[in-house]
Design goal:
The protein is α/β, with parallel strands linked by helices. The longest helix is centred in the middle third of the chain and has 15 residues.
């Protein structure tokens, strides 16, 4: 089983990250498969794949790669640029999918399918914590926002996936020092450098975050200050409610988002204790109550931030 690390010729930051990954010792000479050029790592843990297609449009590339090479793919890390309207320099990562956007099943504007979530990669939280540690040691936090993002965009994949990003303009996309920070973080967590720091066990707690803005400050603070794992993080803009009607239960696309986030996270952490954390202040009272009721129906406990940290 290998983690497939994917880079795209169509993305400047992706190529900066790819070249940084190649500076690691242990890669084989390149080989060709049906989807691109790939290298295997001597650790047996990871493969590095270079494709021409823009990654957000590369649906099913995990299965295509697996079928072409005969190598079983455990999970996927996609190397990518990050773009934001504020152009704030950022080192960031996130799970993928398009929760809560109608009409369900239609192609998303940035790849993926509306309403479809890809299982989140189990290295989400360890990579975030490791990246923050290494970036602060390099004083990159003086220039960059060290953050995670809520679930968004394509492609549609089967294997648990995570996007690894540098943002937000060409100036940052070409930064070798930032790319090297990500490479060292990936190597450390995956064990490419001979040390595996993730210590992921089947019985560990896994948090799903609901509510808040795109950069999920309340959720990421908990992940940074704990050792728990992380599944999907769903922003308010993906939890849309129909107009409130006191005579009926709250309806709207939010229901699909909650169910999909839970079901998708269970795929990645099948034997773990999955619970939810809500950014409570981002919801109206009736919305919060509706989400908690749906989670209870799904067998998912809701924990407050202080409770989560006290259990650590």
């Amino acid at each position: 089983m290998v983690v497939l690390i994917v880079a795209s010729n169509s993305d400047m930051a992706s190529m900066t990250l790819y070249r940084s990954m190649l500076r690691l010792d242990g890669w084989s000479l390149p080989s060709q498969c049906s989807v691109g050029e790939y290298r295997t790592h001597e650790s047996g843990v990871a493969n590095l794949l270079l494709i021409d297609e823009l990654h957000i449009m590369a649906d099913d590339i995990d299965i295509s790669y697996q079928e072409s090479t005969g190598l079983f793919v455990e999970g996927v890390l996609i190397l990518s640029r990050h773009v934001s309207s504020s152009k704030t320099p950022a080192i960031t990562l996130h799970a993928i999918g398009i929760p809560g956007i109608l009409p369900f099943g239609e192609k998303g504007s940035s790849g993926g399918l509306n309403g479809v979530l890809v299982p989140p990669n189990r290295f989400f939280a360890p990579l975030y914590r490791t990246m923050c540690k290494f970036a602060k040691e390099r004083k990159l936090d003086d220039e960059f926002d060290l953050t995670l993002e809520t679930t968004h965009h394509g492609p549609v994949l089967t294997k648990p996936t995570l996007y690894i990003e540098i943002g937000s303009t060409e100036k940052e996309w070409g930064r070798d020092d930032v790319a090297d920070c990500w490479t060292e973080s990936i190597a450390y967590v995956l064990g490419l450098s001979g040390t595996n720091s993730s210590s992921l066990g089947d019985s560990q707690d896994v948090m799903i975050g609901f509510g808040g803005g795109h950069y999920a400050p309340r959720h990421k603070a908990i992940i940074l200050d704990s050792n728990i794992n992380l599944g999907h993080v769903i922003a308010n803009y993906s939890l849309l409610f129909d107009d409130f009607d006191i005579s009926s239960d709250p309806s709207g696309p939010w229901i699909s988002s909650v169910v999909a986030a839970v079901e998708s996270t269970k795929i990645s952490f099948p034997n773990s204790n999955i619970f939810a954390h809500l950014d409570r202040k981002s919801f109206k009272g009736w919305q919060r109550s509706a989400i908690i009721a749906k989670l209870d129906e799904l067998g998912i406990e809701v924990r407050r931030g202080k409770e989560i940290l006290q259990r650590e």
